[in-house]
## 1
Amino acid sequence: MDSLTSDDLMNTFKRMFSRGLILGLLVLFCSFAGSAQVAAETIAVIGTGNVGGALGPQFAKLGHDVIYGSREPEREDVQALVSSSSGNAAAMLPVEAAAAADIVVIATKWADTEVALKSLGDLSGKIILDPTNAVRRDAAGIRYHDVETSTGEMIQGWAPDAMVVKAFNTLGSATMADPASAGGPMSIPIAGNDASAKARIASLVTGIGFEVVDMGDITAAHAIEQMLIVRGNAAVLGSPFNYYFRPVPQN
Ligand SMILES: NC(=O)c1ccc[n+]([C@@H]2O[C@H](COP(=O)([O-])OP(=O)(O)OC[C@H]3O[C@@H](n4cnc5c(N)ncnc54)[C@H](OP(=O)(O)O)[C@@H]3O)[C@@H](O)[C@H]2O)c1
């Protein structure tokens, strides 16, 4: 193929301009930038431990109203978490927080998750963000996935009229709290049955500064939870890593 001269490029540019393509591209860019802005959500974060304490302040920083659902909302560490979260952050009992929210983050240990989830009242129509992992360790600290299907599918089964989205289970809470500490881009795999719910969770993932990879419906949570097992065992064996999926170049 002949190489392009600067005249060729200039002529191409002029042709594009005369057809209004540049204007079209500009309009497209502006509408994309507009749609990328995140609408304010009310997000209940159930559990004020490592994950709740990392994701809550991040979501608050994005301009969302974060309500921590704690069994002891007046506890000193819970009130400190509220104070460290910007905007209209508050703490109340889990059932009250969930009732007030569009999105419910279930940031509880797997062993407590069924009881915690079932204490939240009617979750119909709400999005449940599920970062949980069911992990068993052997004497050497090697991890095994500890449920037959996945925690994501089980949560969807316990709340059939809610829209469960698996996300944030494949990284440590310290990295959720400080994404820059990863030293580069990171991929967050997500899964769920409802496309619009996944899009809303995806905007939280990208808002914090991670890249999102849609793995499909909630049955994909099984594979995503295995990813945590792989990552955890690599760390135990001396090769800690974070997930980043380099896209295959498109020709
Ligand atoms: N730690 C990580 O780096 C990490 C990373 C990715 C995913 N995960 C997964 O995320 C989940 C949370 O892990 P974590 O490390 O944040 O656990 P954690 O530090 O133990 O925090 C769990 C929180 O759950 C709340 N809780 C406990 N029982 C409850 C109940 N019956 N009802 C309502 N809330 C209850 C407690 O908050 P209150 O005392 O305020 O009620 C507690 O602080 C786990 O499933 C874990 O596998 C963890």
## 2
Amino acid sequence: MSDLNEFSKTAPKLETVDAESIPSVVEPRSGSSKLKFGENTSRKKNIPKGLWTKCRKCAELIFDKDLDDNLKTCPTCGFHFPISARLRLASLIDEKSFKELDAGMTSVDILEFTGVDSYSSKLEKYKDKTGEADAVITGVCKMQHHKVAIGIMDFSFLGGSMGSVVGEKLTRMIELGTKNKIPVVIISTSGGARMYEGMFSLMQMAKTCGALAYHSEANLPYISVLTHPTTAGVMASYASVGDLILAEPGAMIGFAGPRVIKDTTQAELPPGFQTAEFLMDRGMIDAIVPRNKMRHSIINYLDYMSANVSKPKAKRAVKKKTS
Ligand SMILES: [Zn+2]
């Protein structure tokens, strides 16, 4: 029995898959249906643990190795599963080109926040769980011929929330980009500002956008990539001010969640509200790019944007000479 419980923890939806498919076959003999379920359970016991994942969209069972090979996207319907910041980083940049910045920077429980759990104990828990010091990894890397300052958020660390460390690490990375005259790419996924740091986390919105403004003044490209979900304080600051805004298919993007908006406005929301596709139709997003094409697309866009960066500068130089 304990074996069965343990199994259902690792593959929680397997029971449902068979239960759904069997009744139509065995319905006429309802008395024997229990036996049929039992038979199937014993068959499922033979499936080794942690090898299969059920797609949340199309319910297909995916071999975990196939899921990993496919950058955590469903080979059948293209559903994008969550992916860790490190795996995403590896999928985007040139091998062995990453120099991490401020890897050891960690948050301080400045407000001595206590709820069900204290903030400091939560921090420790998530550090152990994810192996990361906070919800963002920043650094400098190469993407083919482009040197890029990059920041990648990790939703598995406290919901990718933006506290002082996330804001500071991103700001330093952007400032390094400005100083070295290189493009900035930020891949966001976040529930918003980190409530455990109150006003200090809200201040990160202005700080990161200020650094991006200097980067923009230097005529340097900034690509913002929105992944599921990008919401609240992060969407209301650096994630939404990209020169180019890309999104992964099906990502939920917005300020407040659809349920909150529906409760507040008491109005029916249109279908697909706050998805990447919905925002793309309304001009909030420039392109929707599947995960397996993201590296290639970013490099292409950087080629184009970098080429365009040099043109206005040349024009300005000509103007100065003639005047
Ligand atoms: Zn699927």
